[in-house]
Write a structure and sequence with these properties.
mainly alpha, 2 domains
Length: about 400
């Protein structure tokens, strides 16, 4: 299954490689974490896994969505040709730099890894700044924060041997994006209205949304620097708790009756449900739950919310490339549920370390199965598209 050139296939190769890399992460990091293998790498298994997910997989998916997002958000033709080819090349260079980090200086590894996010900001910024649209500036701000977070990650890794604040800053930036977008990525509501008509309007904004967004952003800011003692642990816990309940209330407003029938809405709600769950678990850590609750919160946000939402965007973008309907098939619903189950298993492993040898391999297997299945589906759709044999999908 050879990925086509990005100059001809838009962001398709990024989606394919992002999915394959997500599967490789779990396939390597799980046995590494359990001590079954010992790769020659100066990073610990959690550090490598966190870096490659937050700064490898997710930015690759953003790059894969970029050729679709640019026309939708700016009205301009999508970027293509050498900019996307260059992006793909520097993404691969960054992954190779991490893989060969045992033979390279830390500064060299950091510079190789930072090439891709900097180039992505440059390409996206050139397109989005033409419109001066506030939502586009939000996307650029998130990408810029990811660049800073990755630089901080490498500095902490060099200075302390592990990254705490760089990792949390990256997670917070990606979560802020999903919170500001009401738990769904740009264009989903518009796609529903185009496909199903005005009888399925988007839920209007209310004060609940504003309060939830404000509390969520404030709580994430406190969570990033939680170990610095800026706020009393009980105050931090209370703020995280309030943010969790506010996010849950916001999610409750997004009722299935406001969207077309079928499986699209439930799978999105499952991914979004991990956002308030993460806040509540982080609150538990501040209120006496300890590091186990912190680890559980981190995996609720990364595997459940960010991973689930990334998969949603990948499936919808791939379907758009093939001319399929903006709905969820039984198979794509299954891979969404597999990611959610993987996140639940990993959260349970953090809260119950005695079952680590059972739950972490289970989480890894479900994660690998989900992203490999998407890669196979996307590769098949790309092949059919290239041969002109694509047929629109039937509604769910």
């Amino acid at each position: 299954m050879n990925p086509p050139s990005p100059s001809k296939a838009g962001g398709g190769p990024f989606l394919l490689l992002g999915a394959l890399h997500a599967a490789v992460l779990a396939a390597v990091s799980v046995p590494w974490f359990l001590g079954l293998i010992s790769p020659e790498m100066p990073l610990s298994p959690p550090s490598w896994h966190a870096h490659e997910f937050l700064f490898g997989v997710v930015p690759a998916i953003i790059a894969g969505v970029l050729p679709t997002a640019v026309p939708n958000r700016t009205g301009h033709p999508p970027p293509g040709g050498w900019p996307l080819t260059m992006l793909l090349a520097v993404w691969i260079v960054g992954r190779l730099g991490l893989a060969g980090s045992a033979a390279l200086e830390p500064l060299t590894v950091a510079l190789l890894a930072l090439l891709f996010p900097v180039a992505l900001v440059a390409v996206a910024g050139r397109e989005f700044l033409l419109t001066r649209n506030g939502r586009n500036l939000t996307v650029l701000a998130v990408l810029a924060i990811l660049v800073g977070a990755q630089g901080l990650f490498h500095w902490e890794l060099w200075r302390f041997g592990r990254s705490v604040h760089g990792t949390r800053l990256a997670v917070a930036a990606l979560l802020a994006w999903t919170v500001l977008e009401a738990g769904i990525m740009p264009g989903i509501a518009g796609g529903w209205r185009k496909a199903y008509g005005p009888s399925h309007p988007q839920v209007p904004s209310s004060r609940i949304d504003g309060v939830a967004m404000g509390l969520g952003l404030l709580a994430l800011g406190i969570w990033i620097v939680q170990d610095e003692g800026i706020l009393n642990e009980h105050l931090s816990g209370a703020l995280l708790l309030a943010a969790g309940f506010a996010q849950a209330a916001r999610l409750a407003r997004w009722r299935p009756r406001h969207a077309p029938s079928g499986r699209s809405v439930p799978v999105l709600r499952v991914s979004c449900a991990f956002i308030p769950a993460g806040f509540l678990l982080a609150a538990g850590a501040s209120l006496g739950g300890g590091t186990a609750f912190n680890a559980a919160a981190l995996h609720a946000w990364t595997m459940g919310a960010i991973g689930g939402m990334a998969l949603t965007v990948m499936v919808r973008t791939a379907a758009g490339h093939s001319g399929a309907a903006p709905t969820a098939s039984r198979l794509t619903t299954g891979i969404h549920l597999a990611v959610a189950a993987a996140a639940c298993a990993r959260i349970a492993a953090a809260l119950d370390p005695q079952r680590t040898m059972l739950l972490i391999p289970l989480a890894g297997a479900l994660w690998v199965a989900a992203f490999l299945t998407f890669a196979l589906l996307h590769g098949r759709m790309s092949g059919r598209r290239a041969s002109g044999a694509v047929r629109p999908a039937t509604p769910d």
